[in-house]
Amino acid sequence: MVSMMEPDGHLPPTAGGLFLPFLMAGWHLRLLLAARATRWILLAWVVLVAVCASGGALAGRAERAAHDAVEASLPRFHEAWAAAYGQEAYRPVHFTAEHPLVLHLAPAPGRALAGGVGDAVGAWAQPTGYHVRELEGRRPAADPTAGRLDLTALVVGAGALLALALGHDALAGERDRATLALHDASGVGPLPLLLGKWGGVLAAAAVVLLLPVALAVAALGAAGELGGGGWALGLAYVGLCAAYVGAWGTLGLAISCWSRAASTALVAGVALWVLAGVVAPRALGTFADRRHVVAPPAGVEQALQGVLASAKAAYRVRLAAARAEHGALDAGDLAALRLAYHEDYYARASRLLQPVERALAARRAWLDGACWLTPSLGFQLAACRLAGTDGTRHHAFREAADRHASTLRRWVDLRVLAGKPGRPTWGELPPFSPAEAAPGARLGGALAALVAWTLCGLLLGWLGLVTPRNR
Question: What does the alpha-carbon distance between residue 8 and residue 396 come to, in Å, rounded to a whole number?
């Protein structure tokens, strides 16, 4: 018989008052860690965490190596392309503004933690086209099997299931062993009993599940795999994992409070995991795709080409009119006409893309609200935002790349108007360095949703304990 009671059925003299939940938490933690199944769970979890952390680190290194190779070849690429044109030709600079190898998305700072949309559709982006908007429209790891296996995919799937397993036996096991009545006889109320069991479940989850993840994240940070975010990114990620595992452990405890047998609690926990951890994120992502339809990339790309053709036709009309009125045009006149052409093209393209931008914004807002419907979706979205592999980072990059491409095109003609003719070198071009958001700014409301799920689990557990038929 396993209980906190003395052999005569009374609580130990020290187990009273405010210390009762803490003593019960320590006792329950001791029981969980002493169980053979817990030791097997810990061993398997450590192996899986090591494999997933290594896989994420290798993928991040490969992406950074490709990025560095492209960055090193850009000056040579620009000069070789420019050598094919005359000194007064400015097409090389315009081509530089359009080429996807020049303005491309750098590897995410936390790529080793979560692959996100980069695993599904790749990280290269062409800012003058539609590819970044396509990336933004993909749901970030809504399907845990999409992309490579990494820490986030492991925690969102196996971590939730193991947290449920740690909590399912807390009260149902007491009923199986007929020891719950001893707590009642000793005057232990429902709330101290619930808080004590909850503390034990959280402590066991911290030792068995969270500690290996924290050590793996620390190793990634020490190896420089977390980019510029460094330790702040790692701490935010571990905190997010703690909130997620705690939410699922609390839900397992709530199921245990309502179950009369540990086997029933385990079956109910697995059913909840399948529904809320696997089915619900996929269903919500599919519903978001159908509710907020984003135009297919090929169609929008074709429409953008039509806008470009119409802007060029208008430019030719203005050029012909200027030549008919003034005769030969100097470099300054041509630069002024090209500036007007750029303004016309960007105004037309912005009007075309406004419905696409509205659909993407509505989709992001809907998914943020859907985080409250299942803890798994909230954790996936927040983890990918922390790592920088979600659509939000692609959106920020796309805006920065669009602005820089426009700056490059205008810069050439403004340079001519300033009396500096001739083709610029690579070193003279304005640099492109999009800013990265701070790790804490990427969490959104997902963390609050996980805390709300934990509180709901505690409330359900308390209701299960105060229901007479469950005592």
Answer: 67
Q: Please report the sign of the dihedral spanned by the C-alpha atoms of residue 182, residue 187, residue 191, residue 193.
A: negative
Cα–Cα distance for residue pair 204/209, rounded to 1 Å: 8
- Which tens digits make up the pLDDT trace of 264-297? 998 999 999 999 988 888 888 788 878 887 776 6
Q: How far does Cα 461 stand from its chain's mean position?
A: 30
Consecutive H or E run containing 147: none
Q: Give the C-alpha separation, 66 to 214, whole Å.
A: 28
Whole-number Cα distances in Å, 328 to 62, 120, 314, 317, 331: 54, 53, 19, 15, 10
* Residue 164: pLDDT over 60: yes
Instruction: For the beta carbon of residue 19, count every other beta carbon within 10 angstroms.
Output: 11
Distance CA 439, CA 449 (A): 18
Average of per-residue pLDDT values in the chain:
77
- pLDDT tens digits, 77-117: 777 767 766 655 555 555 555 554 566 777 788 888 887 76
Q: How crowded is residue 48: how many other Cβ atoms within 10 Å of its Cβ?
A: 18
Percent above pLDDT 70 for the chain? 76
CA pair distance 198, 192, nearest whole angstrom: 10
Express each pLDDT in 175-206 by its tens digit: 887 777 777 777 777 888 888 888 888 888 88
> Could you count the other beta carbons within 10 Å of the beta carbon of residue 234?
24
Three-state secondary-structure class, residue 124: coil
Q: Are 151 and 49 in contact (CB under 8 A)?
A: yes
Task: Determine the Cα–Cα distance for residues 458 and 387; give it in Å rounded to an integer.
Answer: 30
Q: Which residues contact 57 (CB under 8 A, 6 or more apart)?
A: 112, 220, 223, 225
